[in-house]
Automatic annotation (TrEMBL):
Membrane-spanning ranges: 34-52, 64-83
Gene that encodes it: ysdA
Organism annotation: Bacillus mojavensis
Stated name of the protein: Membrane protein YsdA
Keyword set includes Transmembrane helix: yes
Sorted UniProt keywords: Membrane, Transmembrane, Transmembrane helix
Length: 88
């Protein structure tokens, strides 16, 4: 069940980055940075990062440039610990 959640939240993060980029290009209502961060924080950092790279969106924002990869590493470590066969 956790794996399904991780896939869905990362697909959501990827989609939201693409949607926000399209909205920015068409001068329409934007998705807030707080919402983008929320998705990244709840284990969607991989999807947000892939969306950043694919759509070239938020790549010049220092907070996203360094913050999302930092979150991605933290989330990867936490997932690794959770799925570790060793008692940690």
């Amino acid at each position: 069940m956790i794996a399904v959640y991780l896939v869905l939240i990362n697909l959501c993060g990827f989609w939201v980055m693409g949607a926000d980029k399209r909205r920015a290009q068409h001068h329409k209502w934007r998705i807030s940075e707080d919402r983008l961060w929320l998705i990244a924080i709840v284990f969607g950092a991989l999807g947000v990062w892939l969306g950043m790279q694919t759509f070239r969106h938020k790549t010049k924002h220092t907070s996203f440039q360094y913050g999302v990869p930092f979150l991605l590493v933290i989330e990867a470590v936490l997932i690794g610990i959770y799925y570790s066969p060793f008692d940690l």
